[in-house]
Amino acid sequence: LGDLVVNEMAPRPHNSGHYTLDACDVSQFELQVRTLAGLPLTQPRQHSAAVMLNLLGDLWVDNATPPWDKVLALPGTHLHLYGKLKASKGRKMGHLTVTASSPAQAKAIALQAAALLGIEAF
Question: Which domains does the chain have, with CATH numbers?
């Protein structure tokens, strides 16, 4: 056969699927709970295009509060902060998901949000 090389193992859903909270009818978190509880699994269906931005502790430099009011005024923005008490450079503090009717529209709005937050464009 072959070798299996593992880079990271974590008993939680992966960051790359966090968009399912806002853009799908069933999130990866719900599916994990269903799996652990022995409940029926369903195929998730994506109902919106989505782009997700990681929110790192860098945004809270000098204890400044990011401009959430401006970011959340953009259409389709969904803020998820993880409740961590101490922000530090590079530490993931949350994520922002932008949902829209098309990938291009979601990307355009996400770029606006990134600019407001001072996050490097992707």
Answer: 15-117 (3.30.470.20)
